[in-house]
Amino acid sequence: MKLEAILAKLKEHTPEILGSKKFSKYAVMVPLVLKGDEVHVLFEVRSLQLKRQPGEICFPGGKIDSHDEDAEAAAIRETNEELRIDREEISKVYPLDYMVSPFGMIIYPYAGFIKNLEKVNPNPSEVGEVFTVPLSFFFEKEPEIYHIEFKMEPEKNFPFDLIVGGENYNWRARGMEEYFYLYEDKVIWGLTARILAHFIELIRGE
Fold first, then answer.
1. What is the CA radius of gyration of the chain?
2. 169 in helix, strand or coil?
3. Which of 7, 78, 130, 153 could form a disulfide linkage to 62, CB 3.0–4.6 angstroms apart?
């Protein structure tokens, strides 16, 4: 292959996260509502009918479909479907930092304002209940953070003879942090808590 052809290919390339074409992509909405004069964050409790994570607390969201215009459109669509509200009820939608999960997922979170809380009518096939938490609670309460380490276990036919150190190779430790917020009898944790913590840091200006 000639140098000119190689350089032309490089010039045309738009960088993205290496391997991201194989990742599942999800969009999530952090819904803000007004109760009186106070801003609240709305959460869902996943229906017990669901096979995946039944009963856990989350934000509206789901997998980005091929017919979604972009991640923002997917976040809005999922919020419409799960809370059964009209598109017009959602405004002021802004992106947060996207997350790359160690489990082969990219999550695109957004924050948006739901105008009329009383129009929220959760879809029972996906949502068991909804509840809100005053935003001030998260300003006053820092999340509890716990660490998880992953154990490295190469497959049986791993070619140790091809690497320096062989079976005694010093694998770099890998891990992740899990965030927890405890509000009354609710436990908000996992990706939902991580997105929430980022959202709080962002509006605090930290």
1. 21
2. coil
3. 78
- Closest by alpha carbon to 18, among 91, 98, 100? 100
Please answer whether residues 29 and 112 qualify as being in contact, where contact means their C-beta atoms are separated by less than 8 angstroms: yes
Q: Which residues of the chain have pLDDT under 50?
A: none
Residue range 4-28, pLDDT digits in tens = 999 999 999 999 888 888 899 999 9
Q: How far from the centroid of its chain's Cα atoms is residue 138's Cα? A: 18
Whether residue 128 contacts residue 42, with contact meaning beta carbons closer than 8 Å, is answered with: no
pLDDT at 171: 86
* Pairing of the two strands 105-114 and 24-35: parallel
Beta strands in 6-143 (DSSP E): 24-35, 38-46, 57-58, 61-63, 90-95, 99-101, 105-114, 127-134
Question: Considering the chain, what percentage of its residues have pLDDT values greater than 70?
Answer: 100
Q: Judging by beta carbons within 10 Å of its beta carbon (0-12, 13-18, 19+), is residue 128 exposed, middle or buried?
A: middle
Among candidate residues 163, 169, 195, 161, the one with its CA nearest the CA of residue 181:
195
